[in-house]
Amino acid sequence: MSKVEDFEELRPLLFSIAYRILGSVSEAEDAVQETWLRFDGSATRPTSTKAFLSAAVTRISIDVLRSARVRREEYVGPWFPEPLLSDPYQDPARSVELADSVSMAALLLLERLSPLERAVFVLREVFGFGFDEVAAAVGRSEAACRQLLVRARRHMEAGRPRFAVDRQERQELATRFFDALRNGDVGGLQNLLSADVQLVGDGGGKAPQLAKAIMGAENVARVLGTVFPWLIRIDVTFEPHEVNGQPGAIFRDRDGKILQTLVLEVLDGQIQTIRGVINPDKLGHLGPVADAWAIDREVKQARRQMN
Hints:
Layout: H1 3-22, H2 25-41, H3 49-73, H4 95-101, H5 104-110, H6 115-126, H7 131-138, H8 142-159, H9 167-183, H10 186-192, E1 193-202, E2 214-215, H11 217-233, E3 237-240, E4 248-252, E5 258-267, E6 270-277, H12 292-306
Parallel strand pairs: 1-6
Antiparallel strand pairs: 1-2, 3-4, 4-5, 5-6
Helix pairs in contact: 1-2, 1-3, 2-3, 3-7, 6-7, 6-8, 7-8, 9-10, 9-11, 10-11
């Protein structure tokens, strides 16, 4: 196989590694491109192309993450990963690990780890790399990598939900939620929410959003049941779509441009967290992005006319 063919065969894996380390589609794509440039520029072919490319994309991602963490500390409002609609890498033998690790909840847990801990956890726990491969990728000894993994596991396990959710049950709950949302059914929404549910959005200061997280089933249901019918009045539509491996939806303006994504986190048969990403910088990879400020003004104008 040619270098290009070798690389393209492994591109899905490289992107999936980079995305889990970085939590950013655009940064992961840049890391993969930089990996290609290093591979293309190498004078000799490595013994294992997979090992070489995986190590390269991991090191690049670690470097990017170190600088990104500073920016994230200064981020306006809650920071969420860029929404991912489908993971390009599939491995039936590790389907559970892959699906779990790409959820927004898991990616936010990974934010608690140091860049090295995060890389070691992703390579070992998610993709099943041997400790020798992990050590080569991060430039540490196998013993050091084992210690990094122990610390990473401790942080991750402390934040994981206690009850697994059946996939079909989760999807049925999401269908009922989006039906109630479309109909502005406040009572129906409230019945699907846990008592301590949170509704929180990531606008990054670049789009209108809730001033802070909305807490509690009654409050969240009232906000959702009030806001979304007005959006529908001005021809905003939404289509249920899996986001980061969880039930969610993509919202579009009347021209079909992306307004935001919404993802539901289900725990013990109820919706525990609703996360919205409306920051336009995080939506461009999904398609043309709507002007959220213009939509906000149109909603306010429509409400004034009704009063």
